[in-house]
Specification:
Jelly Rolls, globular, ten-stranded antiparallel beta sheet, binds calcium ion, 237 residues
Length: 237
């Protein structure tokens, strides 16, 4: 039984290690392998739905691989939205490149699939050399040194239980001890919308390498893994 005990201990250690890993909820590089086509609307592709105006898969400003999501203009405003699996604690990561200094180019995270204004938990956008976000009801500057035609890496960790989020720009934490949601959530988040402000001036911004993942709580995951393994090991010995 000594060998079995050692094996069990090894399995528990492995389970604790695996438990800390995030699981991917949604991922896309807007590539042809994801179903997108150059110069074609993203409407209906890989979970995306056109909200207003137009958003296309484009090779013109590809940030990674061959294609990116481009917030184009053929209508009054452009925005595309997508639903993902409901989750209370998520990480949203992507590349973003503002290509116009004046108009808004940003994203909302929603707690509801009807994408209502009061469902916007996280609201953030580039405009006039700044990255702005709502901290509760207050529109706040996250960064005031934004350049156009520059690719930024964005990371948001949003906690629907506490209605707070943290945000990293190029790996640097920009929200201190955390920002409050613009609107309190129902406890889970389930939708993302990329948008640009309304003006007929062509492309405003580009997105690529979007990954939405859950954030497992290591202690809970480890305990779950430990519990089931202890049961398993007891049965076996
Ligand atoms: Ca890409
Ligand atoms: Ca929800």
């Amino acid at each position: 039984m000594k060998k079995m005990r050692l094996l069990c201990i090894l399995m528990v250690v492995l389970a604790i290690g695996a438990g800390a890993q995030a699981a991917i909820i949604y991922e896309t590089g807007f590539e042809t392998t994801d179903g997108f086509s150059d110069g074609v609307s993203v409407d209906g592709v890989d979970g995306w739905v056109l909200h207003t105006g137009s958003a296309i898969a484009s090779s013109t400003h590809a940030l990674s691989g061959d294609l990116s999501l481009e917030m184009q203009d053929t209508g009054p405003s452009g925005s595309a939205k997508m639903l993902f699996a409901d989750n209370g604690l998520i990480t949203v990561e992507f590349l973003a490149r503002p290509v116009n200094s004046t108009y808004m180019f940003g994203w909302h995270l929603y707690d509801d699939d009807d994408y209502g204004d009061s469902d916007r938990a996280v609201s953030m956008w580039f405009t006039e050399g700044k990255l702005k976000a709502y901290d509760g009801g207050t529109l706040t500057n996250i960064d005031t040194d934004i350049s156009i035609n520059t690719t930024y890496s964005i990371k948001i960790v949003a906690d629907a239980a506490s209605n707070t989020f943290n945000m990293w720009l190029d790996g640097n934490l920009k929200t201190g001890s955390g920002f409050n949601f613009r609107n309190s959530s129902d406890g889970t988040l389930c939708a993302l919308r990329m948008f640009r402000s309304s003006a007929a001036i062509g492309n405003v911004g580009v997105i690529d390498d979007l990954v939405i993942s859950d954030v497992p709580e290591p202690a809970t995951m480890a305990l779950l893994g430990l519990g089931s393994l202890v049961m398993l090991c007891r049965k076996r010995s």
